[in-house]
Structures are given as structure tokens and as C-alpha cells.
Write a structure and sequence with these properties.
With about 475 residues, the chain is α/β, with parallel strands linked by helices. The protein contains 15 helices and 15 strands. Bound molecules: nicotinamide-adenine-dinucleotide. Belongs to the glucose-6-phosphate dehydrogenase family. Keywords: Carbohydrate metabolism, Glucose metabolism, NADP, Oxidoreductase.
């Protein structure tokens, strides 16, 4: 179903994010027939280009980031015609009048701030000064949304001077992933899971986001942030919220976000012994983290694993274990809900220990898998094996599932539709920082040194111990 006609202005329209994600995503939606003929996309950035030059940039980006078999010349030409360019320095006065002239009446107006957060204020202010943004306009802002509670608050206040909360779309692309939304469908659309979704039946939950890449190329930026700020405060926290939250009364933006906020507020402070930080060493022909960061004394973590307790009736006593890191064994994002043992085994000790585990895979191969225990086939008596009930979407739903929109595509269309459900609300972001800040401050105060780990592993040995000492273990990263 096509969305309503819109004018979308991308500040930073020539940048890396615009070229890799936003423009290819918009093209894919055009190709899918979701973008109306009247839609226009205006890139605004500092460099001097005319429309033709920008269209070449956009075409090259789409050709680079969308495989040949997934695009076609005719639709690409049509899409490119919808693009134009205005040179604007966000901190200056030029370019705003031409931008204003390009905006059409009666269209949805959306402004994508794909620029450094320091420019959010200047852009917001000028959009109003020049009468370009109004009460129905929407703005999209990227991560990082602050680097601590104070800076996030300040950003929220800056945006609030010019826009109402209902106009602000804070992107966390993890929320745009198909499986993440499916998580809500599975939890709240079936009777099967919800009765078991609590401390009585769930032993613990694991959330893993593992990358094989290092910080090469963005080492200087990353070194000021680290895994806690770059991944945990936003992406992993959002996943935790969706697993832990109470059923909202309806699938509506504020109902969902209210429930997520309650989860964040129920997180217990994390004690130092419940966290392991790591930093990758050189290996496999690749430099170490410190070399990548060009900071021989860096104390920034490229890996973090932790145990989190959610203090509420549903989860008391059922810990959430989170880990994320770079240069690990495999690229994978996975949530595992590990259920408790059956209360009594009628098959005796030799049948071994078997547990149901629901795994939700975000990448690769988005899907879900439920491990169930069955009898091993054959005449050997009552031997038990665990087999997967596999719900890989590509298998279950056919080829259509392979063509699910990328997170960015979906989220941008949600902006045009005016649906904020999958975007973070200001108070959510602040609550997440309020929980994260003391952890980072404690590290900084005692110059905490991350544990070194070899590339291609599952992170520092201590991260394994975090689970082992409680009789649990991490799922293998693969
Ligand atoms: P980039 O440096 O590649 O591009 C920045 C863009 O902003 C360019 O188009 C540049 O012309 C424009 N710009 C810079 N200063 C300007 C000014 N004064 N006035 C007008 N335009 C100006 O950056 P990027 O990687 O595309 O990132 C953009 C934003 O998105 C950042 O906030 C970044 O943190 C965030 N982000 C990027 C990625 C990514 O994968 N690249 C991922 C998540 C979030």
C-alpha cells in the first residue's frame, strides 16, 4: 500500500549513511510500489552540487549497495528523477530560501537529520526560522543520541524547543528488523508462550550481538564511545525491553513505549563483578584494537558481557545476560530464552538434562527456533534428543520472506505514515542512559582496564565465567 505523498529532506544526503542505507532503502520502497509518484527527496549537505551531480552520487550509491539482480534500470531512472539537491551549511544562512521554495504545499514534510548531533539544534532552529517546518512536520534523528544522560537530556531539550515529541523519530534500526517485530507477534499473538514467559518457567535469557569486524576506519570515533555506549545502551537495551515488557493494552506507540520504559526503570544497578569488559588483540593478520584506535593506552572496551537483574514480579530471579563485541568468532545476533528443567524427570538420570530453548535470530537468517525434547528414534529404549522446531522465515513463508524490507526502509516508511511505535521516545533514551551512566563512571573512576581477547574467539575467558559460576553457559557464537 503506497504511503501518502511526501517531501523528504535528508540533511547529510551525501554522507555515508545516506549512501549506504537511506537512498538504497528509499529506492527499494519505490521499486516495491510503496512510494507514490508524487514523492520527492531533497538532499541537503554542505558540499556544492547541482541536481545532476547529486543524482549521479545517488545512482552510484544504489548501484554499489543493491545487488545487480535486485534493481532494474527503468525503476532506478524513475526514482532518480525524484531526487534533487540543495547546498546548505547547517550553521549558516545560505540555502534555506531555495530549500523553502522546493517544499510543496499539502505534502507530508519529513526531515532526516543524517548529520552529527551537534547540528541538530542549528538545523531545527533554521527550519523554523524560515517557515520550512510546521506542526505537522516530522524529524528523524540518528544515533548516537547523547553519550550520557546529561548530553541526551540536552539534545532532547534542544529538539523540544522546536518540535513536539510526537514529531520526533529517534531511529534505532534494531527495532526495524523483521524478527524484532515478530518477537512481539509471537509473544502477544499466541497463547502458547505468554503463560511461560516469566521467572517461574524461564531460567535465564541471553542476548548476543557479535561482530567479526573490528573498528577499522572508525577507530577514533569508537574509542570515545565503546561497546557499552555504542551497542548496549541502545540496541541491546531495546531487545531486552521487548523480551521483558508486559503486554501493552494495544499495539500503539505510547502503549508499547510506556511498557518498555517500565522495564528500563526496573533494571537493577549492575555490580562490577557482574560485568566483563574486553578489548581485542592483534591476530589473523589484523591489528589490535589499540592500533585500530590509534591509542596505545586506550581503556575503551570493544566487548562487554554482563548479568542484569530486572526487579519486578515477572522477572525476579531470572537474569538477563547480555554480550556484544567486535572481532568475535562469527557475525550473529541472537536472543535465547532458556526455559527451566522439567520439574521431575521420569526417564531417569541416564536420559540426561534437556531444556527447551527458544532462539530468536536477528542475523544471519532471520528466524526463530524452538528446541524440543523428543525420543531418539530406534529400538534403543527411551533415549532423549533435542531437536529444533525451525521457523526460519525464508523456509516457512517462501521467497517473499527473503525480500522483507531492510530495517531502514521500513522505519522511513513508518515516519511517513506517522507511526512512532518502533522509535525511541525521549524518556526511554534518558532512562537507558540513567542506568548506563553509573556503570561507565565506575570504570572511568578506577581506570578499569578491559581484558584482552584473541580475535576469532567468544571474547575474554572471564565472560564465560560470568555464567559458569552460576551453572549456566553461553550459547556458542556461530
Ligand atoms: P558522514 O560524515 O559520512 O556525512 C555527513 C554528512 O553531513 C555529509 O553529507 C556532509 O556534507 C554533511 N554535513 C557535514 N557538516 C555539515 C554542515 N555544517 N551543514 C550541512 N551538512 C553538513 O556521516 P554519516 O556516517 O553519514 O553519519 C551521519 C549521522 O548518522 C551521524 O550522526 C552518525 O553518527 C549517524 N550514523 C551513521 C551510521 C553509518 O553507518 N554511517 C550509522 C548510525 C548512525
Amino acid at each position: 500500500i503506497p504511503v501518502d505523498p511526501f517531501d523528504l529532506v535528508i540533511f547529510g544526503g551525501t554522507g555515508d549513511l545516506a549512501r549506504r542505507k537511506i537512498l538504497p532503502g528509499l529506492y527499494r520502497r519505490y521499486q516495491a510500489g510503496q512510494m507514490p509518484e508524487e514523492a520527492r527527496i531533497i538532499a541537503a549537505a554542505r558540499s556544492d552540487h547541482d541536481d545532476a551531480e547529486f543524482r549521479d552520487i545517488a545512482r552510484a550509491a544504489i548501484e554499489e549497495f543493491i545487488p545487480e539482480g535486485k534493481r532494474d534500470a527503468a525503476s532506478l531512472d524513475e526514482f532518480i528523477e525524484r531526487l534533487s539537491y540543495v547546498a546548505i551549511d547547517a550553521t549558516g544562512d545560505d540555502g534555506w530560501a531555495p530549500l523553502s521554495e522546493k517544499m510543496r504545499e499539502g505534502m507530508i514534510r519529513a526531515f532526516y537529520f543524517s548529520v552529527a548531533p551537534s547540528l541538530f539544534g542549528p538545523i531545527a532552529e533554521r527550519l523554523h526560522q524560515h517557515g520550512i517546518a510546521g506542526p505537522d512536520s516530522r524529524i528523524v534523528v540518528e544515533k548516537p543520541f547523547g553519550r550520557d544522560l546529561a548530553s541526551a537530556r540536552k539534545l532532547n531539550q534542544t529538539l523540544a524547543q522546536h518540535f513536539d515529541e510526537t514529531q520526533i523519530y529517534r531511529i534505532d534500526h534494531y527495532l526495524g528488523k523483521e524478527t524484532v517485530q515478530n518477537l512481539m507477534a509471537v509473544r502477544f499473538g499466541n497463547v502458547l508462550f505468554e503463560p511461560l514467559w516469566n521467572a517461574q518457567y524461564v531460567d535465564h535469557i541471553q542476548i548476543t550481538v557479535a561482530e567479526t569486524v573490528g573498528v577499522d576506519g572508525r577507530g577514533a570515533y569508537y574509542d570515545k564511545s565503546g561497546a557499552m555506549r555504542d551497542m548496549v545502551q541502545n540496541h541491546l537495551m531495546q531487545l531486552l525491553c521487548l523480551i521483558a515488557m508486559e503486554p501493552p493494552s494495544r499495539f500503539d506507540p505510547d502503549a508499547v513505549r510506556d511498557e518498555k520504559l517500565k522495564v528500563i526503570r526496573a533494571l537493577e544497578p549492575v555490580e562490577p563483578y557482574q560485568i566483563v569488559r574486553g578489548q581485542y588483540e592483534a591476530g589473523g593478520g589484523q591489528p589490535s584494537y589499540r592500533d585500530h584506535a590509534e591509542n596505545p593506552r586506550s581503556l575503551t572496551e570493544s566487548f562487554v558481557a554482563m548479568k542484569i537483574n530486572v526487579s519486578n514480579w515477572r522477572w525476579a530471579g531470572t537474569p538477563f545476560y547480555l554480550r556484544t563485541g567486535k572481532r568475535l568468532k562469527a557475525r550473529t545476533s541472537e536472543i535465547a530464552v532458556v526455559f527451566k528443567d522439567a520439574p521431575h524427570s521420569i526417564f531417569g538420570a541416564e536420559a540426561g538434562r534437556h531444556r527447551n530453548i527458544l532462539t530468536i535470530r536477528l542475523q544471519p537468517n532471520e528466524g526463530m527456533m524452538l528446541g524440543v525434547t523428543i525420543k531418539e528414534p530406534g529400538p534403543g529404549g527411551m533415549r532423549l534428543v533435542d531437536v529444533p522446531l525451525d521457523m526460519t522465515f525464508a523456509d516457512a513463508l517462501g521467497p517473499e520472506a527473503e525480500d522483507v524490507p531492510d530495517a531502514y526502509e521500513r522505519l522511513i516508511m513508518d515516519v511517513i505514515r506517522g507511526n512512532q511505535t518502533l522509535f525511541m521516545r525521549g524518556d526511554e533514551v534518558e532512562a537507558a542512559w540513567a542506568w548506563t551512566d553509573p556503570i561507565i563512571q565506575a570504570w572511568e573512576e578506577r581506570d578499569d582496564a578491559p581484558k584482552p581477547y584473541d580475535p576469532g574467539t567468544s571474547g575474554p575467558e572471564d565472560a564465560q565465567m560470568l555464567m559458569h559460576r552460576e551453572g549456566r553457559r553461553w550459547r556458542e557464537i556461530r
